[in-house]
Design a protein that fits this description.
- By secondary structure, the chain is α/β, with parallel strands linked by helices.
- The protein has a single domain, classed as Rossmann fold (3-Layer(aba) Sandwich).
- The protein is built from ten helices and twelve strands.
- The strands form three sheets. A six-stranded mixed beta sheet has the order 6-7-8-3-9-10, with helices on both faces. Strands 2-1-4-5 form a four-stranded antiparallel beta sheet, covered by helices on one side.
- A hairpin with a 2-residue loop joins strand 4 and strand 5.
- The longest helix is centred in the C-terminal third of the chain and has 18 residues.
- The chain is globular.
- The termini are far apart.
- Bound molecules: adenosine-5'-triphosphate and magnesium ion.
- The site of adenosine-5'-triphosphate has 11 residues, from helix 1.
């Protein structure tokens, strides 16, 4: 279980994560939604220790992450960051193999190579294995970074906008992959999503963040109400159930109206 207690981050006068206490039990998909600047990425960075909190604490399976060795933490929790746009002159397979570093420390075993190949195949990028990462398209690169995170094979995965740049087919495949990882491998997935329809389709739980605080939190059916979503995003939306899926329409008047 991930537990945060009074988690707070300030930058100068600005409180960007404001006294957040939440428990995320093991296994399942939790989606974090909310407007730009709500504090979603900062919240994930605090949970993964990439950013130190101003106050409050994070425990994972009962251990305060502040006192965990880096190598141990990297076997427990992986994070996909929102911006992977830095240019790296590495091949796809070399970059994905970095996910194995906490285990191999640079000396890849046949099992590590197997894990790399499996992750590449899962994300449909086996054919890109020998290509340089800085010569890929945005969506191809996003899938490479996702493969690196999968390779780390941790119980907890924190994913900040994993569907960024993905075409609709690969976005759908990726969400189904995460769902399966939660159901079949008991992975605990906490993911920031801007596509609220994907969040509605695949989450066990949805946390809406606004102004650094938890604005709403519950099962998709509890959170995906017009009242809650319209207030969270400060815009009109309508919600329909179609073929057992919750569909949120936020496009505004169409050209046919
Ligand atoms: N290093 C920093 N220094 C100062 N302010 C920061 C820093 N990082 C983030 N912020 C501010 O904290 C707030 C929350 O940022 P954060 O990146 O967590 O938002 P977000 O919910 O992930 O937004 P988005 O949907 O745009 O990714 C923003 O107002 C941002 O400007
Ligand atoms: Mg963000």
């Amino acid at each position: 279980m991930i537990e945060t207690r009074g988690l707070t981050k300030r930058y100068g006068e600005a409180v960007v994560v404001d006294n957040v206490s939440v428990r995320i039990p093991r296994a399942g998909v939790t989606s974090i939604i909310g407007p730009n600047g709500a504090g979603k990425s900062t919240f994930l960075s605090l949970i993964s220790r990439l950013t130190p909190p101003t106050s409050g604490a994070v425990t994972i399976d009962g251990t305060n992450i502040a006192s965990v060795q880096g190598r141990h933490l990297a076997k427990l929790l992986s994070i996909l960051r929102q911006d992977n746009h830095f240019s790296v002159r590495l091949t796809v397979s070399d970059l994905v193999a970095f996910g194995r570093y906490p285990y191999s420390r640079g000396h890849l075993t046949p099992e590590d190579h197997q894990q790399v190949d499996k992750a590449l195949a899962y994300l449909g990028i086996a054919g890109l294995k020998a290509r340089y990462v800085d010569e890929l398209s945005g969506g191809q690169r996003q899938r490479v970074f996702l493969a690196m995170v999968l390779c780390q094979d941790t119980d907890y995965l924190l994913l900040d906008e994993p569907l960024n740049s993905l075409d609709i087919k690969h976005a759908a495949i990726t969400m189904q992959l995460l769902r399966r990882a939660a159901d079949e491998l008991d992975k605990t997935i906490v993911t920031v999503l801007h596509d609220i329809n994907f969040a509605a389709a695949h989450s066990d739980r949805v946390i809406g963040m606004k102004d650094g605080r938890i604005f709403c939190d519950g099962r998709p059916d509890d959170v995906f109400t017009t009242d809650c979503l319209s207030n969270l995003f400060e815009m009109e939306m309508s919600i329909q159930v179609w073929q057992k899926q919750t569909i949120i329409n936020y496009f505004g008047p169409s050209r046919r109206d």
